[in-house]
């Protein structure tokens, strides 16, 4: 069930889009994202937009423990007007990279079976994401790391793994960042993986974790960070620029929400 050695799958996304002249410099901040393209309307909007990467969430119809088809929804939702099969049919006709986010192990295998049916049409970055460790204020409800990595690599040994920590956010609370125990546990899990790995980290928690996350991505030139945000998170464009100043620009992607996304992109153009 290997992926047939598709070069784009084992290539860093920033290099793929630079090589295909979709971005002008080896700067991962230039890679634009469409987040939560789950419904048919949002998938269609993503397909016709000018983004490079489309992120969407996959669950089994009926939710965790369900045995329905893989559908495009973010928990707590357990139903959708869009199945993964229909979603892939829409997106394969574009030139956009794909990030599929899984919240349960049960959804992974049937989803990868569907992905395998269209892999010959997907010479582009493909990322498979799950939170496999508890992180700052995070729940212990993680996707089993061994099961997730084993399933994904048995189908697609070259696919980019997007691995994160569960996190929590409370606006009126002091937030610790990603600590040494968290990053070293992740490094231990990933040290034998041969494919690209991007670590999904929450924007509001990165500034206080720069030393730890710098150390983590220095463990391999296959590693990168992907900055994401929650709707209620409090963080500033200055925080994003601080991240940008402290990491290799080719190794940090920004899948962030408005208005910070537009403000951040204006700020980096002005630099």
Automatic annotation (TrEMBL):
It comes from Melopsittacus undulatus (Budgerigar). It comes from the Eukaryota. Pfam families: Menorin_N (PF10223). This is Menorin-like domain-containing protein. Residues 27-260 form the Menorin-like domain. One of its GO terms (cellular component) is extracellular space. InterPro entries: Menorin_dom (IPR019356). Transmembrane segments: none annotated. Belongs to the menorin family.
